[in-house]
Amino acid sequence: MRIRIDHSTRYTYARAARFIVQTLRLTPRSCEGQQVRDWRIETDVDARLRRSEDAFGNIVHSLYTERPTDALTIRVTGEVSTIDTGGVVRGLSERLSPLVFLRETPLTRADAAIVDFARTVPDGATLARLHALMGALHQDVAFEVGATSATHTAAEAFGQKRGVCQDHAQIFIAAARVLGVPARYVSGHLSRQDGQHDQDAAHAWAEAWVQDLGWVGFDPANGVCPTEHYVRVAVGLDALGATPIRGTSYGGGQERLTVALHVRPVQQNQQQLQSGGWPR
């Protein structure tokens, strides 16, 4: 499958910002399950972009502006070819031991309710327990846009039994760690099968470490393991560590954020044209 992504983030400021610094985790890596065919990051202002990698192996771009700016648009466009690996992540060079991902954070700290929830998962093989955890979470926590904010913790979202994909992922991570399974947060994109190509935000899910398999993806918001419809972009201990854009501005006053995201499959005839011209 080939997926086309067009992701635009626009900041407008009450008065011109003297200096803007942003950290961008917007660029996916190629691995066995996905091959990045084309990827671009563009801005509509005079800005510096410096590429690097963080401790988790994510591709990071640091953005700097040095002139007064009253608005900034960051646009990402690209195409990624994907295959279904059953959620198993292969072909990536991992820098860190899986044990690092047993560490809790303020966003993924398990309270008594999450501990009790995790302990209801039947004993058995790790993979089977993780599937059971995903299924139970998908049933227990409703998907509801606007029920939470980016600062809500796993415990807070679980307490109200409502949230979005970020909340489902962080609750899964907290519960998996209670079971002694390393787990991490994944930010990325989902090409929806219902034809809804215009989306409000990027997608999020979790990965957990299974001995002899490695990292395996789980999307409790949808109750499935990632398929060829998913594009994996960045990972972290929690949502904060894999946030697509994070930064600050100086002197800009109140800031307004607008996001436009379009994720769609490239049609077969378009793929043929791009790879080999018109069919004969």
Backbone structural class: alpha+beta
Strand order of the largest sheet: 3-6-1-15-10
CATH fold annotation = C8orf32 fold
Low-pLDDT runs? 270-280
First and last CA, distance: 22 Å
Strand content: 35-45%
| CATH architecture title | Roll
How many separate domains make up the residues?
1
Helicity range:
10-25%
Mean pLDDT over the residues = 92
Largest sheet features: 5 strands, antiparallel
Compute the gyration radius: what is it? 19 Å
SSE pattern:
EEEEEEHHEHEHEEEEEEEH
Shape verdict: globular
The CATH class is identified as Alpha Beta
What's the number of helices? 5
- How many DSSP-defined strands? 15
Give the topology:
Layout: E1 2-17, E2 19-27, E3 34-43, E4 47-53, E5 59-65, E6 69-82, H1 112-118, H2 126-140, E7 142-143, H3 154-160, E8 162-163, H4 165-178, E9 183-190, E10 198-199, E11 203-210, E12 214-218, E13 230-236, E14 245-250, E15 255-265, H5 268-276
Parallel strand pairs: 7-8
Antiparallel strand pairs: 1-6, 1-15, 2-5, 2-14, 3-6, 4-5, 9-11, 9-13, 10-15, 11-12
Helix pairs in contact: 1-4, 2-4, 3-4
Walk me through this protein's architecture.
It is a single chain. With 280 residues, the protein is of the alpha+beta class. It has one domain: C8orf32 fold. It is built from five helices and 15 strands. The strands form four sheets. A five-stranded antiparallel β-sheet has the order 3-6-1-15-10, with no helix packed on it. It has a four-stranded antiparallel β-sheet with strand order 4-5-2-14, with no helix packed on it. A hairpin with a 3-residue loop joins strand 11 and strand 12. Helix 1 crosses helix 4 and helix 2 packs across helix 4. The longest helix is centred in the middle third of the chain and has 15 residues. The chain starts with a strand and ends with a helix. The C terminus is likely disordered.
